[in-house]
Amino acid sequence: MEGTGAAPYLSVVIPIFNEEGNITPLLAQLFSVLRSLPHSFEVLAIDDGSEDASFTELEIGTRQYPELKVVRFRRNYGQTAALAAGIDFSRGEVVVSLDGDLQNDPSDIPALLTRLAEGYDVVSGWRKARQDARFRRALASRIANRMVSWISGVHLNDHGCTLKAYRRHIIKDMRLYGEMHRLIAIHAHRLGARVTELPVQHHPRVRGQSKYGLERVAKIVLDLMVVTFLDRCFVKPMYVFGGIGLVFMTGAILSLVATIWSSLTEGVSMGPMLALLFVLFFASGTISLLMGLLAEMIVRTYFESTHRPVYTVRDSVNL
To answer: Which of 233, 249, 268 is the endpoint of a domain?
Structure first.
């Protein structure tokens, strides 16, 4: 969503949910850092349906900091939706995301921008010395990071750190759902982006309550499965459904051969059971193959109706 006037170089996006008491000191620290940079900037605070005085504090902040822009949701949609809205409303060439609970340190932003200037497209913060409850958030984060790195093949120490810097052309067309704001670096890597990690400071929460726990691990892993499927199999879903169907068909053939063999062998009573296995495998294989064909038709219709490109271009010269 484009605004008026010249677009700033940097957009800082802050999802906010019930951060009363944290907003005023956060804005003071953030604007002190941003005004020391040689870049034009804007700050977008997304109030994710807060039930406290967060929006009031943000309104007061807009009168003190003209670069601050506030978007308020009608209800709580979650951090992913808030981050997506911030990206949509931002105009900067570079987008930096930042938590609103004062645990991320705004003074790390210049280092993120320096790494971007070295040629990277995404710089992900690494909370190397986390200041969270060991057996609740820290343990959940450690488990999630290892699983995500193993499944995705993108090895970062801290996938869940909100403090990240992105080049706009990498994230402008991403559609974020569920807990996928934590998986942007993975999605960007699969689009050909250069991704790196940078140790950043992390402070203990002083005010408010954490919104995270062990239940987030399951959500993140399920979202990662969706991202992996869409990345690898969206264009050719027949490879997935057809592969499963061929496995079932192979099982059906083996069951049929075993059924015939048992019927020709005296003293063997496995014939009826093997015949049932043949029917189940054959029916499952047929359904999987038909689902694959149906998925192929849906995908082709999607690409033709939305005119979505099947490739992305990083650069061109003398085109």
So the answer is: 233
Under 8 Å between Cβ of 126 and 198 = yes
Q: Could you tell me if 20 and 53 are in contact, meaning their C-beta atoms sit under 8 angstroms apart? A: yes
**Whole-prediction pTM:** 0.72
Domain boundary among 199, 233, 267: 233
219-247 residue pLDDT tens: 666 666 666 666 666 667 777 778 888 88
φ/ψ region of 46 (left if φ > 0, alpha if ψ in -120 to 50, else beta) reads beta
Give residue 131's domain range: 10-233
Q: In angstroms, rounded to a whole number, what is the distance separating the alpha carbons of residues 165 and 235? A: 29
Task: Tell me if 282 is assigned to some domain.
Answer: yes
- Say if CB 226 and CB 178 are below 8 A apart: yes
Supply 52's token pair.
């406290």
Do both 285 and 199 map to the same domain? no
Q: What is the DSSP letter of 135?
A: I
